[in-house]
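Q: Structure tokens for this one, please.
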Amino acid sequence: MKYQAYFVTCLLTAMLAWFGSVLLGVPFWAVLGLVMPGLALAQMYAANRFNGRASLECEPVPLTGYEMRLDRLEVARLDFDQLGFQKTDEFYLRMACDVVTFVHQHTHEPLYLCDYHFGQMVGVDLITYFEDDITLTTTTMQSGGTVPRQPKSLLQVIQHRSPAEVFAYHQHAVDFIKGRGVRPVYVPYLTFKERFMQSIREFFRRTRNPLWSVKFIYWHFTRRGKIYMKPIQEQYLAGTIRIFKTAVS
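A: Here is the predicted structure, written as tokens:
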């Protein structure tokens, strides 16, 4: 279905460019170059609206069509088991780029691991919650660090590393935050799942502004979109983030 929609979009783009070239008397490729950016922004906006719909929920993984994704996630599960994780859940998110997710919980640490398969791309998030509503996420996906985040939503993008190395980076960041006087807290799985979905909805709620797509492209191609591509310790020393516990009056 996704590929059919993509084909229809390309066909409509070509038809619109052809009509424009005939009406304006200019080369087809010149009109196409003007039309495509606008349609790309419109498509991005429509996808964000779809992804952020109120009815988005975790669904059971479909019985057919996702066997290769499940096999890949099961293979990766063996690596995570060796790091002290146990699989807690699996679910499907019906988004513009649909996602199969395996959730793993660490047996000794207050830590969750989400392993995603997007069809053409895979990625991992390590998530630890702290007191004072602070969250630390270590992700292997560069796209996760493109968009500016809320002050208490800490992120480090660690790419091209083994699962053990990504886990070590996350643990170093946890220790660094603990050294700033903020303790990690245990979150039951159902609470984690609620927060997980809430964070998705909140993110896409912010994208409803039509100008967001333009901002996203700007962030993606400038230094602003790369500030999280370094360990938490370096972000802190550079002044990119602040870590402190709010005083209780």
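A few notes: The two ends are 55 Å apart (CA to CA). Residues 2-51 form one domain.
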